[in-house]
Amino acid sequence: MQDVRALNEFVARESAFVDNLTAEVGKVIVGQSYMIERILIGLLTGGHVLLEGVPGLAKTLTVRTLCEVIDASFARVQFTPDLLPADLVGTVIYNHQKGEFTSKLGPIFANLVLADEINRAPAKVQSALLEAMQERQVTIGEATHRLPDPFIVMATQNPIEQEGTYRLPEAQVDRFMMMVRVGYPNRQEEREIVERATAPLEQKADKQIDLERLRSASQAVRDVYIDDRVKEYIVDVVFATREPKARGLSDIAAFIEFGASPRASIALAKAARAHAFLKHRGYVTPEDVKAIGPDVLRHRVVLSYEAEAEEVTAEHIVRRVFEVVEVP
Q: Which one in 143, 144, 163, 279 has a CA-CA gap of 20 to 30 Å to 53?
């Protein structure tokens, strides 16, 4: 018990900045605590985060504000149908004075990259982003360049039903640790938004932590204890999306074309640790897995034609999985 107590005290010290950081973001952002928490989990684990919601829900402002409270390099790329890979990763230019070709690095060379409206860019740009997200490097001409550490993509996308959007390839979607659905604020929050938007002075967020503090917190997240029974629970949940009949989920078996990949198991374990860290706890509980599970799994379950015909969503599939899989 002494080890658990010591670990709890260690995590409590390392996570002390979280409340101050969240309060600082709250100076600019009203509500959206769910989205802010998920982005913090991405920052602490080095996982890319995809935010989906209709325009006007402060997705871009939230990411920008979080970047302001962390002393790290930040770049925003507005994805459009005419965007080229070179606009993102950079290109090779000829230097007349030196008589040689040199690499001109693109905006992706930053710690935090905001890919705004990512699903408005064509497939060739998505492919360029794919190497960067997975390998943490990009190739320009014949040279390979390492990206900064940390390197995290925070992407926003509009619902695919909207005009001028492209469906992201499954291979790229799987690279995102979480896909977070962003909803409307409640009435009280919207009233506060109107109040702040019409105030004479604009609120600004001040820096709270630097990159070294973020790296230290990320290391502390890796030290959060996760019991073998919780690991088994994570694997059971992921396997239930692949073998639903064997797990007592015959009612949804016909709706799943492909289950979640092994990346889902890794992401669930990492995100559950970060969730416990944000709650100032040194150990993971099954409730951490259930809390973060929908965001990790919803974009990794590929639905069948039957699901589309019956209007069954990935949300329904994931909810059923967590209802049926036994909690340790």
A: 279
